[in-house]
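Hi support team,

I'm opening this ticket because the web form for multi-chain structure prediction keeps timing out on my end. I have pasted the exact lines I submitted so you can reproduce it. The total is 459 residues across two entries, so I didn't expect it to be a heavy job. Is there a limit I'm missing, or should I split the entries? Thanks in advance, R.K.
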Amino acid sequence: MSEDADRELRVSKIRDGTVIDHVPGGNALKVLSILGIDGSGGETVSIGMNVPSGELGKKDIVKVEGRELSQDEVDVISLIAPMATINIVRDFEVEEKHRVDRPDRVTGVFTCPNANCISTAGEPVESVFDVLDEGVRCAYCDTIVREDIAAHVG
Amino acid sequence: MRHDHLISAKQLSRDDIETVLDRAAAIDGGEVTPETDGVLGLLFFEPSTRTKMSFDAAMKRLGGNTVDMGSVESSSVKKGETLADTVRVVSGYADALVLRHPSEGAAKLASEFVDVPLINAGDGAGQHPTQTLLDLYTMRENAGLDDLTVGIMGDLKYGRTVHSLASALTNFDARQHFVSPESLRLPRSVRYDLHEAGAQVREHTDLDAILPELDVLYVTRIQRERFPDENEYRQVAGEYRIDAETLEAAREDLVVMHPLPRVDEIAPEVDATTHAKYFEQAHNGVPVRMALLDLLLKSGGEGDE
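Hello R.K., no limit was hit. The queue was backed up. Here is the completed structure from your submission:
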């Protein structure tokens, strides 16, 4: 058994669903937030946090039982986890393996850090951010977020 | 113009700008007399004198009429109505809307809920594109719009007129010098757009070094209310004041502009000099807004001029 596989076992195997690997250490809960998973939907979720990783130093792993992520969901994860790999698991086997791609625009994922932005004022709209080469930009007030994008999920 | 709405100066191409300015000049010179029987909805969620009155005057000079939401205190907004609902309702009463709002992005949001043209008349520290059109009109009348060296001084961080002007000037052959205290530099988003547009931009904390080069000096108020510490404000405010002595180092044909209101950043003695164009600039608001309304109402948001 390879070292990587051994580390995988720190988080239990799933029968059907999605494994999101190579998430920067400490960001697993942000990934769940992006996916809108807060436990109320009944999904079974396993998380490994700050697992040693050759590429990232420390990485998180998120395993979601019974749910296959769409490409759109995967792409949004790319903004906080550009190195993430997505494994679709069926009957305990990895059936598909994807890399994440940066989308042009994300809706309803981030909260604008500008306290005076209309998108945070209780209006009937979701947040919309355009994705830049480095960071994201609020489509309402133009505020650019470059550092610690994950802190603005939610 | 092909825009349904005017939200940001970033929407405006050089052709768009010249179309509005040419129309405004024709109206100003009495060469054309456009008419409308339309109704303009005035939605001003924060105080405004020049912008509101000039839109009101412009629409009435076109032969149209205005409906006015009045003050926030006397409207349904006070009862907690969302902006989205307010504009949806008023868009049923009017052929076009003008919105002034204290929050950044308000005009963009409002435009998503209406079918009539919506004009941003200032959204927080965001944008003020119609001010920019009258600024450009004034510049064109007094200095031209190409091969221009423009100094923009004051509160560059929160000054929405500055953000719109800087963006619009990227359509022209203009060198832009930004002068402000370090704490009131241009926001990251505006610097990003200028960089993306390939604009010739330099930032300074002191006017002296570049004043002799300038064709236009655009002064804005340093907003006392933005400073957490009154002493900090006092330290910088005095340094960004223009008076007759300051202007001795300037070119004779320097054009001094200001979106108004001013407090003490331009001494009254400057008013009598040939440099002062800020009252002319304010007067230009009416023909420019007449031209814009004429174009938007005629296009119905779909056509072309």
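A quick check on our side: Strands of chain A lie at 17-24, 44-53, 57-65, 85-90, 93-99, 105-107, 128-131, 136-138, 144-145. Let us know if the file doesn't open in your viewer.
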